[in-house]
Amino acid sequence: MPDFFQTGAVATLHRLGKPDVARLESELERFSEETPIALVLPCHIREVGTPALNRIVRELKEVTYIRQIVVGIDGATHVRQWRRAYKFFRQLPQRPVLLWNDGPRMERLFAKLEQAELGTGQAGKGRNVWICFGYVLASEEARMVALHDCDITTYNRELLARLCYPVAHPALGFDFCKGYYARVTDKLNGRVMRLLVTP
Questions:
Q1: pLDDT per residue over 43-59, tens digit each?
Q2: Alpha-carbon gap, residue 112 to 101, rounded angstroms
């Protein structure tokens, strides 16, 4: 039997019944006029071209309420890897911005920040996410940011719509929403919660 008891500042929005994705997306289209939405995709170069990321890109091609997509590319240490990622994400109609975290310009930026004692920490998903957030904030194109991984094998548009809806809806008053999808493995997951909520 499910437990619907809500405690504290974190609410659980249960999936009761079958959501009407077309209705959610239609409402998000309206909400995004007032609250433009950015999507951040932290991506390792080894994920480019995988079945999971192919599926994500195929689904994102149909999403019209996202104003900006920012993809942070980690692990691309050679220009040919960067070009492969660029070519792959260029198929999205939202004209995504790709940040080459291992490229020469970003390496110079990281070195300058380190000299100013503003180090960004070690390379990895955490730094990738924060660099992408910085770009979104600096570009001033969005007032809300959604974030998800690039290895979700069960990805569909409903997942993104349900992730965006609670924060984008002007009457709900949520500042943060974390989606959940089943991923049963022997690894410790939940980095979004550890990176963004726990601190």
A1: 999 999 999 999 999 99
A2: 14
Q: How many residues in total does the chain contain?
A: 199
Q: At 192, list the tokens.
A: 């979004």
Residue 121: give its domain's CATH number: 3.90.550
Cα(123)–Cα(103) distance, integer angstroms: 12
Counting the structural domains of the chain, the total is 1
Q: Please say whether the beta carbons of 180 and 189 come within 8 A.
A: no
**pLDDT(5) > 70:** no
In this prediction, residue 1 carries a pLDDT of: 40
Please give the pLDDT value at position 27.
96
Contacts of 123 (CB under 8 A, 6+ apart): 74, 101, 102
Torsion angle of the four alpha carbons 17, 144, 129, 137, in this order, in degrees rounded to the nearest 10: 180
Bigger pLDDT: 116 or 178?
Answer: 116
- 94 by Cβ neighbours in 10 Å (0-12 / 13-18 / 19+) ranks as middle
